[in-house]
Amino acid sequence: MTAENSSFLTEFILAGLTDQPGVQIPLFFLFLGFYVVTVVGNLGLITLIGLNSHLHTPMYFFLYNLSFIDFCYSSVITTKMLISFVSKKNSISYAGCMTQLFFFLFFVVSESFILSAMAYDRYVAICNPLLYTVTMSPQVCLLLLLGVYGMGFAGAMAHTACMMGVTFCANNLVNHYMCDILPLLERACTSTYVNELVVFVVVGIDIGVPTVTIFISYALILSSILHIRSTEGRSKAFSTCSSHIIAVSLFFGSGAFMYLKPSSILPMNQGKVSSLFYTTVVPMLNPLIYSLRNKDVKVALKKILNKNAFS
C-alpha cells in the first residue's frame, strides 16, 4: 500500500453509519430528533439549576456540569453526522478530524470523572451527612471540577498527540461516522503498537479510576443504607442514588464495550453501534433520568412553570 505521512494528508472520508442511500433521510430526521431532545433537555436542566437557588448545592453543581458536558460532546459528534446524511461527499479535513477527536475525547473523559465526583458527593451526603457542608465546601467542589477537566484535557492531549504522529495510508476512508481512535488507527500504514498501548493505558485509567471510585463509594453507601432502621429512610437513600447508578451503568458499559476489547473481537460495525449509544443516546437520556426521577428538579420545574403561567 502507498503510504502518506499524516502531516501531508489533507482530508479523511467518513464512511458514515450506512452506505444505503434510501435510509439517509430517515436517519437524518431520527438523529435530528435525538439531538433536539438532547439540546433542550441539557440546556433546560442547566437553565433550571441556574435560576433556582434551592438547587445551588454540590449535587446540582456537578449535575450542571454533567449537562454542559453532554451538550458539548453530543454537539461535537451529532452535528457532523447530520451533515453527512444530506451531503454527497462525507469528508472532513485533517485538522478538522484532529479537532473533533480532541474535543470528543476531552468531553468524554471529563464525563467519566464528573460521574465519579457525583458518586463521592452522594457518599458524603449519605454516610457523613453532618459533615456534608464542610466536606463538600465550594472550594472542594471547585477543586474536584478542576480535576475533572484536567483529566479530560490530559487524556485528550495524549491520544491526539499520538494520533498526529501516525503515518496514514493513501486510502483515507475511515469506517466510522466520526473521527475516533480505533477507526483512524485502521488507516495507519506503520506499526500502531505505541498508539494501542496508549489506548489501553489511558482509557484504562480514564475508565478504571472513576469505576473504582464509584464502586467504593457505593459499597460504603450500601453499607450505610443497610444500617438505617426505617424503611422510609432506606427508600429515600436508594432513590437519591438511583438516577446516578443508571447514568453510570449506561455510560461506562457502552464505553468499556467499545474500547477495552480487541478489534478482532469487536468488528467496527458493532463498534459504531456502541459509539452511537454513548455519543447520542446517553447524552439524550441523562437529563431525562435526572429530571423524571428527581423530586427536587420536578418541584423546581413546576415552580418556574407556575410562575410563568401566573405572569
UniProtKB/TrEMBL annotation:
Organism of this sequence: Rhinopithecus roxellana
Assigned keywords, A-Z: Cell membrane, G-protein coupled receptor, Glycoprotein, Membrane, Olfaction, Receptor, Sensory transduction, Transducer, Transmembrane, Transmembrane helix
PROSITE patterns given in the database record: G_PROTEIN_RECEP_F1_1 (PS00237), G_PROTEIN_RECEP_F1_2 (PS50262)
Domain G-protein coupled receptors family 1 profile, residue spans: 41-290
Entry's transmembrane regions: 27-49, 61-83, 95-118, 197-225, 237-260, 275-292
Protein name per UniProt: Olfactory receptor
Keyword Transmembrane: yes
Subcellular localization, as worded in the UniProt entry: Cell membrane
Keyword Glycoprotein set for record: yes
Membrane topology value: Multi-pass membrane protein
InterPro entries attached to this UniProt entry: GPCR_Rhodpsn (IPR000276), GPCR_Rhodpsn_7TM (IPR017452), Olfact_rcpt (IPR000725)
A GO molecular-function descriptor: olfactory receptor activity
Record GO cellular component, one term: plasma membrane
Family named by the database record: Belongs to the G-protein coupled receptor 1 family.
Gene field: OR8B8
